[in-house]
Amino acid sequence: MRSAVRLCIMSALVTVSGAAVALGSGKPLFSSGEPIHIVIQGPVGAIARRAADDVTPRPATLSVAGTSDSLPIQLSARGLSRRTGGICTFPPLRVEFPQPPGPGHCSLVKSG
Q1: Separation CA 1–CA 45 (nearest Å)
Q2: How confident is the model at residue 99 (pLDDT cuts 50, 70, 90)?
Q3: pLDDT tens digits, residue range 49-59?
Q4: Where in the chain are the domains?
Q5: What secondary structure letter does DSSP report for 53?
Q6: What is the pTM of this model?
Q7: Predicted pLDDT of residue 4
Q8: CB atoms < 10 A from the CB of 25, how many?
Q9: Taking the C-alpha atoms of 52, 98, 20 and 9 in order, what is their torsion angle to the nearest 10 degrees?
């Protein structure tokens, strides 16, 4: 089940609201064609189970795979038709940064 949830998370449309996030030393997010491997930890299963009726943001963390650095985020289900209409087996996720990440914070830096 966990690997299926991870696959769904990676496949799900993730909307990052707040600050644009990039790897490295201030380079724009899409300055390279290399994939950015991230790990999202939080109550993903609970969000998916309640997606049709509940879009309340839940606390979670986002980190770059292979590092111990992380940022606090809020996760919630998004997308009315895909969330409630039986179109998707896993709802798209909204990822929100409660506070914009500062320069040099956790291998993830604010673009700008």
Answers
A1: 10
A2: confident
A3: 988 888 999 99
A4: 2-110
A5: T
A6: 0.63
A7: 40
A8: 8
A9: -30
Considering Cα of 36, then 24, then 21, then 67, what sign does the dihedral take? positive
How many other CB atoms are found less than 10 A from the CB of residue 67?
Answer: 11
Matching residue, tokens 């798209």: 92
Q: Which tokens in the block code for residue 51?
A: 């997606």
Identify the CA nearest to 51 among candidates 92, 12, 87, 14: 92
In the chain the beta strands, taken as DSSP E runs, fall at: 14-17, 21-23, 38-41, 58-64, 71-77, 93-96, 108-110
Cα dist. 57→42, 49, 98 in Å? 11, 14, 10
Find which of 27-31, 74-78, 107-111 is predicted with most confidence, using mean pLDDT: 74-78
Measured CA to CA, the distance from residue 101 to residue 93 in angstroms comes to: 20
Amino acid identity at 23: L
Interacting residues of 107 by C-beta distance below 8 A, sequence separation 6+ = 23, 24, 64, 67, 69
Q: pLDDT class for 35, splitting at 50, 70, 90? A: confident
